Amino acid sequence: MGYVVYDLETSGLHKRFDQILQFAAIPTNDDLEPITPPMHVRAKLLPSIVPSPGALHITRRTIDQITDPALPTLYQAACEIHDACLSWSPSMFLGYNSIRFDEEFLRQTFYQNLRHPIFMTNLNGNNRGDVLRLVRGVALLNPHAIVVPTNADGRRSFRLDDLGPANGFKSDKRHDALSDAQMTLEFCRLVRDRAPDAWSNFSRFANKPNVIEFIQDEDGFALLGDWAESGFSCVTHVGQHPTDKNLQYCLDLNSDFAALERMTHTELCEQIKHTEGPVRKFRANASPVMAPLWELEDQGLLGSSSDDLCHTARQVRSNEAFLDRLRVAIVECENVWPQSVHLEEQIYDGFTSDKDAALCQRFHQIPWEDRPKLITSFEDMRLFRLGRRLIYHERPDLLDHNHLETMRDEVRRRIDGSIADAPWLTIPTALSQIQDILNQPTSHEEREDLKHLREHLTIALGMNPAA
C-alpha cells in the first residue's frame, strides 16, 4: 500500500462552517517516493462564507486572490479531489494534524457537495495517519531522531513552520498546502530513516484490526501524542462503546484503583466527567500512536516500573464486577449532543441510504438542467437542501423564483449577522476583527490588504465602504 500525503488551507478554523481554499496531495509508493506529479487545487470563496481576517492576515492571502473568478468553484474542486482520492485507493492518507482538522474539512466538503462516500480516507481499503501524533511520539521515545525547537515562551513547538527549519527543511512558502504537504513528506522520511521502529508501529496502527489486537493483548500500554502534559498516558483497555465499536475505553494506570473500586456509581461518574479523570478514550480507526510500557521505561519516563504497571493492569482487568460498573458509568457519561438546526452540523446525523447514495452519484453524471428534479427524489431532507444549495451556487438560473428568493435570503441572513447566536463568522464580527488587527503594529502592505478586505465586506453587507 502506498501513501498520499496531503494538506489544506482554509478560509478559517471552523470545521463545519469554513471552506477549503487550497488542497495539495503527493501520492507515493511504499518507499515514500512520489509516483505522480503532486495534485494542487484551489477553490473560490463561496459568497455564503465570510473569510477569517486573522487567517488571511497570517497566510498573506488577499480577498482578490480567493475570490478570483478564474478559480474553480468549491463544487468543482470537491469533485476533482473526490475523484483523485478514489483513484489513489487503497492508500494510507497522511497529514499534519489531519485527523482533527484536515480530514474533518474533507468530510464536510464531500458532504456539502453530495460526494458519496464522505469517509474517503478510511473506506475502500484506505488507512489514515496523523504525522503530528507520530512526531510527538518520536520526540518522546526517540529524542535523537528529531529536533523540537522551543518558542518564545520556552515551550516546545510542534508547529510545522517551526519544526521544518529546525530539522533542515527549507520552504519558500509558509501556509501553502503544497509546501506543507512536501514538508510533511520529508518528516515521514526522516522518521522512517532515524526511528524505523516508530515508523513501523505508526503504519501498523493505521490498521484498525492491528489496534484492537494490540490493546487486547497488552496488559498495559502507552497512548502517545495527545495525552497529558507529559505527552503520554499509561493505560489498560477496559472496553468499548456498546454501539460505536471504534470508540475504545482505557483506564489510566496511575489512577487510585482501590479508591475507584470503593466509589458509588454517582461518585464514579463524577470522576469520569472530570477533565483530568481516570478514563482515556480513543478511536481504533483513527490511527492512535501507542507503545509498550517497556519502551517508556527504557527512556526513564515512568514513575513506576513497567512490571508494576502491568501488574496493576492485570488486577484491573481481572475484576469483572468493577469493569462492568466502570463501563456502565463511562457510557452514561458520554456526551449526547442535541440535533443542530444547522445543516452543516447535521453531517453525522445518520448514514446515507443506498438509494440516496446512488442518487448522489447520479447527480454528478446528469446535465445541470436535470438536477433540480433529481434532488426532489432524495429521502434524506439534508441531501435535498444541500442539492438545492449547490444548484443555487452553480446554476441559479435553474431554480424557480420562490426557491431562488429563498436561497438569496438564506445567504443574506447568514452573512449579515441577523441570525442570533450563529456559530459561523458574520460580516459584522469580521469587520470588528479587522479593526482589532489594524490597531496592532502592521506593515503598510498588510494594512492595505486589510482595508481592501474591509471594503469588500462592507459592500457585501450593502454598506457604504467610506462609512
CATH level-two architecture of the largest domain:
2-Layer Sandwich
Low-confidence regions: none
One letter per element, helices H and strands E, the order comes to: EEEHHHEHEHHHHHEEEHHEEHHHHHHHHH
The CATH topology of the largest domain is given as Nucleotidyltransferase, domain 5
Keywords:
10 strands, 4 domains, Nucleotidyltransferase, domain 5, 467 residues, 5-stranded antiparallel sheet, single chain, PX Domain, 5-stranded mixed sheet, alpha+beta, Monooxygenase
Per-chain topology:
Layout: E1 2-10, E2 20-28, E3 39-42, H1 53-59, H2 63-66, H3 74-88, E4 91-95, H4 98-112, E5 127-130, H5 131-141, H6 160-166, H7 177-194, H8 196-204, H9 208-217, E6 221-224, E7 232-240, E8 247-252, H10 257-262, H11 265-273, E9 279-283, E10 289-292, H12 293-298, H13 306-318, H14 320-333, H15 354-363, H16 371-375, H17 381-394, H18 401-415, H19 427-438, H20 444-460
Parallel strand pairs: 1-4, 4-5
Antiparallel strand pairs: 1-2, 2-3, 6-7, 6-10, 7-8, 8-9
Helix pairs in contact: 7-8, 11-14, 19-20
Description of the structure:
- With 467 residues, the chain is of the alpha+beta class.
- It folds into four domains: 2-197, Nucleotidyltransferase, domain 5 (2-Layer Sandwich), CATH 3.30.420; 207-333, PX Domain (2-Layer Sandwich), CATH 3.30.1520; 350-415, Monooxygenase (Up-down Bundle); 427-460.
- 46% of the residues lie in helices and 13% in strands.
- It has 20 helices and ten strands.
- It has helices spanning 53-59, 63-66, 74-88, 98-112, 131-141, 160-166, 177-194, 196-204, 208-217, 257-262, 265-273, 293-298, 306-318, 320-333, 354-363, 371-375, 381-394, 401-415, 427-438, 444-460, and strands spanning 2-10, 20-28, 39-42, 91-95, 127-130, 221-224, 232-240, 247-252, 279-283, 289-292.
- The strands form two sheets. Strands 3-2-1-4-5 form a five-stranded mixed beta sheet.
- Helix 7 (177-194) crosses helix 8 (196-204) and helix 19 (427-438) packs antiparallel against helix 20.
- The mean pLDDT is 94.
